[in-house]
Amino acid sequence: MNLTYEPSSEPQADPLLGRPMHRRAIEIAADFTAQDVSNLMWGLATLGVEPDPKMVEVMQGRAIEIAADFTSQDVSKLMWALACFDTSQSPVSSLMAESMAVRLLSLREQLSVEDKCQMHQWLLFCDLHPEWRGKLLSSMQKVPKP
Q1: Taking Cα atoms as reference points, which of 111, 84, 82, 105 lies closest to residue 94?
Q2: Which of 50-64, 75-89, 96-110 has maximum average pLDDT?
Q3: CA distances (Å), 8 to each of 11, 15, 110, 113, in order?
Q4: DSSP state of 52
Q5: What's the average model confidence in pLDDT over 88-117?
Q6: Alpha-carbon gap, residue 90 to 29, rounded angstroms
Q7: Residue 142 and residue 146: Cα distance in Å, rounded?
Q8: More confident residue, 11 or 56
Q9: In the chain, where does DSSP find H-type helix?
Q10: Nearest to 89 by CA among 134, 26, 36, 25
Q11: Res. 117: pLDDT tops 70
């Protein structure tokens, strides 16, 4: 009998878990840390799970509230995930992006190459997405290149 665990080559999300988890995340969003917000969004993007739009809005609002607590890795993971979801520009998303840009610039000396690459993927998304095109945030444009 073979009891070894062999993970599949591609991560698989259980579609039945998605909606209850999204609802619960919305309910307890006020308790989320910066790492919680970025890990949740990054995890969904990594699994290819499209998040509930309300949950995205709530997580963006939470990110604005606690922007000063984000590490450079938290910022880059969150922005990369949002680019993966092809989020539309809204007042909340614009304010969140600006808050993250300001935070990232305060941490620019701590940026890893991976952080810079993820941030530039976000900038590319902004440049190519019709709702964001031409509206790149001045703070984001100052992010150092990898």
Answers
A1: 82
A2: 50-64
A3: 7, 17, 34, 28
A4: P
A5: 80
A6: 20
A7: 12
A8: 56
A9: 15-27, 34-47, 53-65, 72-84, 91-106, 113-128
A10: 134
A11: yes
